[in-house]
Specification:
This protein is of the alpha/beta class. The protein contains 23 helices and 18 strands. A four-stranded parallel sheet has the order 7-6-8-9, with helices on both faces. It has a four-stranded mixed sheet with strand order 14-11-17-18, with no helix packed on it.
Length: 729
């Protein structure tokens, strides 16, 4: 877009983050003194961006423009409330609710036992149409939930809605994604198929690093016989309990938002449900092969929405996994600080003039971020009992409260309506004295503030000739009283440009203004004070400022608002079906995509948990010492001190490949020694010789085992020692 003629190229943009009010006023004074005209009273145009500038803003704006193009294309065919990209958060919540409901119903068929879980789900395929439908709905609604919550995160990020008072919503949103992922991760564990096998082994790697279990958790997943049923039920309990964590985090996530759109409306909910049901019928959810810990799976269909960490757990150790987890979490949670170029905001929190506040409560009702509360006045008298109070920690400086106040009692610093009215009066009188007409334009910074060049002295823009242009944080900042004042002062018309109807940066500001202009929300534009036809309200994005220029020119010429074209119902239905099919396809495509799995190189495991011989004889307790102990602890012998470490020597085909000493656990070194060793070996036949020494004599090997066996690709052979003998699995 043409950003102006030569004389404007060096002028600072009215929406630029570096614009200073003092410099603009000084420049205005100098310019007016040269032409013998008095300076314009009131504030210079403030920055259109109430929040701080962020790093990579130009890149983020280009990405945001992609969403804006999609929103614009859909707006031609379907209403805003049916646009899935404008309701990503609500769709994610609706899908989560469907997943929770179908999960509860699925309990009628599912058996939470490591020995019965797989068979109970396999029986649904041919034994119960309803059960299979519930399983498929449970899976695909969970996948769709993750799809739309990730889209929601991306939209919030590219729109820079994570700074200042919104940082809490960003951080809690990251935790919501994390909890949702754990729910899906544990859910796949409960199927106990090949996918669950890899989930269990990967989880065991993580837990083995932590001092939680006495024995490494990986020992429980060496053979099919060792898998503990109690631990499997614990995973089931965690899977059922974690949705409560989602509810708590969602409450925190929305704690600074008024009137949150928690769920989708009737039509969009039906669209979601029908698309998920059709997907469940066309491509029913199925299990992978039965879990077999003796064999490494050679690839399977993986749900990449939840199981993508298998790419890491199959290839890295527990320490590296925890490092990646903590670094990733810290980086994501630090985005509100890392991305901001400076800590202060250009426009500060709204301020209340207690002398003029009428206690009408409209500002507190209209604030989208629950930053305004009505409090009792300290003074006595017949005046209003209440007054507005702004919480600066919640205020995002959108100015929507200003548009809700007829008494000009609340305003943003540098954007006071009373000063703007005085500036309008002086401006119009000066223009009328020269025989000129000037229209007024208020442009939301989110709709095109970064592409619309405005001279800060003359308040003119080459894109809107004949208009006095003022940039505002949100179209909701414009009050009905301000419009009435401008028209009564002699302005032929008022143009207001708001952001498009997608996920607006300041949520409801443009909606409230539109309702005020139409007389549906107080304070309304009063017909006796101003003609509605003299006000043009456009909702657009920064990619369509050329359309705004054409509409503004037509408005000046005809003084009439163009009537939007009606949508064709059949076309709208067709576009809705297309969107439903597209979302269903994306959900399914990533839910059963191929995965090669771990390397098929055979592995040999050797493991034991064994007590070494005591290094000193246990002391007998006296009668007095026994009396002081609880009944269940009254053994005749006390602690015998430390035990000998247990040594392991592993030889293959006569060559010693491993010899290691394992110290006893416990503060007194009197616990068992635990070993869990694995070797990757090429396929072939091997003679394996294992010797164990649990004595203080380094040359004694009281336990020996030797056997020859064959290793095939994907084999997991395990040699277990239980204190009395060896077992090969």
């Amino acid at each position: 877009m043409n950003r102006g003629s030569t004389d404007l190229e060096d002028a600072p943009s009215a929406c630029g983050p570096r614009f200073a009010r003092e410099e603009a006023r000084a420049e205005s004074d100098n310019a007016m003194s040269e032409t013998s005209k008095p300076p314009v009273p009131g504030p210079a145009p403030a920055s259109a961006h109430a929040g701080p500038a962020v790093r990579g803003e130009s890149v983020l704006r280009r990405m945001e423009s992609g969403f804006a193009r999609f929103d614009r294309a859909l707006d031609r065919f379907i209403p805003d409330h049916m646009n899935p990209l404008a309701r990503t958060g609500a769709i994610a919540n609706t899908c989560f609710l469907i997943a929770a409901a179908t999960g509860v119903v699925l309990l009628f068929w599912y058996s939470p036992s490591v020995y019965k879980a797989y068979d109970s789900l396999e029986a649904l395929r041919e034994g119960s149409f309803l059960g299979q439908l519930m399983r498929s709905l449970h899976r695909y609604s969970s996948d769709a939930c993750m799809l739309f919550i990730l889209l929601h995160v991306v939209r919030v990020f590219v729109a820079r809605k994570f700074t200042g008072a919104r940082s809490l919503a960003w951080i809690t949103g990251i935790f919501i994604v994390g909890i949702l992922w754990v729910i899906g991760w544990t859910g796949y564990w409960l199927v106990w198929d090949e996918r669950a096998q890899q989930v269990a082994l990967g989880s065991a790697k993580l837990f083995d690093v932590l001092p939680i279990f006495g024995d490494p958790l990986s020992r429980s997943f060496l053979t099919n016989e060792l898998v503990p049923s109690l631990f499997f039920f614990l995973v089931f309990f965690v899977h059922m309990l974690l949705p409560l964590g989602i509810v708590v985090m969602l409450w925190l996530h929305l704690s600074r938002i008024s009137r949150p759109k928690l769920f989708t409306g009737h039509w969009l909910t039906g669209w979601i449900l029908v698309s998920l049901v059709v997907l469940s019928l066309v491509v029913p959810a199925e299990s992978a092969g039965r879990a077999d810990l003796a064999v490494k799976p050679d690839g399977f269909g993986m749900d990449w929405w939840y199981l993508w960490p298998l790419v890491l757990t199959d290839r890295f150790g527990g320490g590296a996994l925890w490092a990646l987890f903590f670094v990733g979490t810290i980086v994501l949670c630090a985005v509100p600080r890392m991305m901001v170029k400076r800590s202060e905001t250009i426009i500060g929190p709204a301020r209340v003039n207690s002398d003029t506040c009428q206690g009408c409560t409209l500002c507190s009702k209209d604030c989208p971020f629950d930053a305004i509360r009505m409090v009792s006045r300290d003074s006595e008298g017949k005046g209003p009992k209440l007054m507005a109070q702004v919480d600066p920690n919640r205020c995002v400086s959108c100015g929507i409260c200003t548009g809700a106040c007829d008494s000009d009692a609340i305003a943003l610093p540098g954007l006071a309506v009373a000063e703007e009215k005085a500036s309008i009066d002086h401006w119009i009188r000066r223009r009328q004295a020269n025989g000129e007409e000037v229209f007024l334009a208020y442009v939301c910074g989110q709709s095109g503030g970064d592409v619309l060049a405005v001279n800060p002295v003359t308040l003119e823009s080459p894109a809107l000739p004949g208009y006095r242009v003022m940039m505002v944080p949100c179209a909701g900042w414009v009050s009905a009283a301000l419009i009435e004042h401008a028209i009564q002062a002699g302005a032929p018309g008022v143009l207001i440009v708001g952001c498009c109807s997608g996920e607006a940066v300041y949520r409801e500001g443009a909606d409230w203004l539109e309702q005020r202009l139409d007389g549906k929300r107080k304070p309304i534009l009063r017909p006796g004070k101003a003609d509605r036809n003299r006000v043009l309200f456009l909702r657009t994005d920064r990619m369509r400022m050329d359309e705004v220029s054409r509409a503004a020119a037509a408005f000046k010429e005809n003084m009439a608002k163009t009537v939007p074209s009606k949508r064709n119902r059949l076309v709208a239905i067709g576009v809705g079906v297309l969107l439903a099919g597209l979302s269903a396809f994306v959900t399914w495509a990533a839910s059963d995509a191929p995965y090669r799995g771990p390397s098929q190189t055979p592995e040999l495991y050797v493991s034991f948990s064994h007590l070494g011989e005591p290094l000193e004889e246990a002391r007998r307790l006296t009668d007095e010492e026994l009396e002081r102990l609880p009944v269940h602890m009254r053994a005749e012998t006390g602690s015998g001190g430390s035990r000998a470490p247990v040594r392991l020597r592993l030889s293959i085909d006569g060559d010693v490949l491993l010899e290691r000493e394992y110290r006893p656990r416990g503060l007194r070194r009197d616990g068992p020694s635990t070993a869990l060793e694995n070797l990757e070996l090429p396929e072939g036949t091997y003679r394996v010789h294992v010797r164990i020494n649990d004595t203080a004599d380094p040359d004694a090997w009281p336990f020996e085992w030797e056997e020859t066996f064959e290793l095939s690709p994907g084999d997991r052979r395990v040699v277990l020692f239980d204190g009395e003998g060896f077992q090969l699995h």
